[in-house]
Amino acid sequence: MTENIFKHPSKITHQKNHPSLVLWFTGLSGSGKSTLAHAVEEKLYQMQYHTFVLDGDNIRHGLCSDLGFSNEDRIENMRRIGEVVKLFVEAGLIVLTAFISPFRTDRDKIRQLIGTNFIEIYCDCSVSACEKRDVKGLYKLAKAGKIKQFTGISSSYEKPLNPEIIVNTANQNIDDCVNQILAYI
């Protein structure tokens, strides 16, 4: 498929006043990934870092709008996102990603693609706590059988084995979580 296609290397290195990083927020729907990613981005922006947030819902409206939620489609979704994240890192940005990314092997593949600049952040929050803050009503729909293959209800989530950061979003407030992440990076 990549026959007669060649990479064209850039002659410009994209140096910022900080290293390129990927802050990969993973966890169940409603665990606070997007909220936390945007809060961390706001603090980094105030510190004059160059950032961008990639969010699962936003990606599925465009780049991955042709994918469903089967295991195969979830794997392809992560593959595409990994390649986009790699480009943002090459551009010198701090990329904050907010994806359920339920399969450990997919996250590990992206970690290998990115290298040492990959920081996995597990938003630890129980299904019951996520259900209580379910602003989109997705858990209710999933339990009623109206959403098939919903992570945490009818589809599995594989917790990270060795994330760089674990934030307990069920018991810590947003400021404490943000400060914990900033202290690490």
Structure at a glance:
This protein has 185 residues and is of the alpha/beta class.
List keywords for this structure.
185 residues; alpha/beta; Rossmann fold; five-stranded parallel sheet; 5 strands; 40% helix; 15% strand; globular
Given as residue ranges, the uncertain stretches (5+ residues, pLDDT < 50) are none
Would you report the number of β strands?
5
In the CATH hierarchy, the third-tier topology is known as: Rossmann fold
Number of domains: 1
Under the CATH scheme, the architecture is: 3-Layer(aba) Sandwich
What is the mean pLDDT?
A: 89
Report the radius of gyration as a whole number of Å. Answer: 17 Å
Question: At the first level of CATH, what is the class?
Answer: Alpha Beta
Structural class: alpha/beta
What is the topology, as strand order, of the major beta sheet? 2-3-1-4-5
State the fourth-level CATH superfamily. P-loop containing nucleotide triphosphate hydrolases
- Rounded to the nearest angstrom, the distance between the terminal CA atoms is 39 Å
Order of helices and strands: EHEHHEHEHHEH
Residue share in helices?
40-55%
Shape: globular
The proportion of strand residues reads 5-15%
Number of helices: 7
